[in-house]
Specification:
Strands 1, 2, 3, 4, 5, 6, 7, 8 and 9 form a nine-stranded antiparallel sheet that branches. By secondary structure, the chain is of the alpha+beta class. The chain contains three helices and nine strands.
Length: 149
């Protein structure tokens, strides 16, 4: 999905305004490019979104990605499905070891309608923390035992 953002968006780079410290991040705002014509369902959804990307400049790695639908997206003239404006997602990645980044938090909220009147209301949140590297050569059984301790 991330490759789609590069081809159909317009970007405004800028320093992160809310940085409390010199954390070497750049916030990039993106909006749909009105001249681009989406070629798939996935691209139609991405083309209707606006949001921000936060990039770690030291590692040139994605730190945070936020998006929100600016307008409703309909499939099959709205008879098959419609995703409503305001639907959103957010992903935060953290550096857990030098040059190793993992998803620490992910939130999605999508509202809409499918096949005439069935309501879509999908909300999901997941948080991951306390990442620890396992010794090399650890088997799955050993990893499960460590996890259960």
């Amino acid at each position: 999905m991330y490759h789609v953002v590069g081809s159909n968006g317009r970007y405004r780079p800028g320093r992160r305004p809310d940085a409390a410290s010199a954390d070497d991040t750049t916030r990039i705002a993106y909006r749909p490019n009105p001249e681009y014509t989406p070629k798939s369902f996935e691209e139609r959804v991405m083309h209707a979104m606006h949001g921000t990307v936060l990039v770690d400049e030291r590692e040139f790695r994605l730190h945070q990605l936020d998006g929100r639908l600016e307008k409703d997206v309909s499939f099959g003239m709205g008879l098959l499905a419609t995703l409503r404006s305001g639907s959103s997602f957010s992903t935060i990645r953290e550096e857990v070891a030098p040059s190793i980044w993992k998803v620490a938090k992910m939130q999605t909220r999508f509202d809409g309608r499918a096949i005439f009147f069935k309501t879509i209301n999908r909300q999901q949140q997941s948080e991951h923390s306390e990442f620890k590297a396992l010794p090399e050569g650890t088997t799955i059984t050993q990893a499960v035992e460590l996890l259960l301790q």
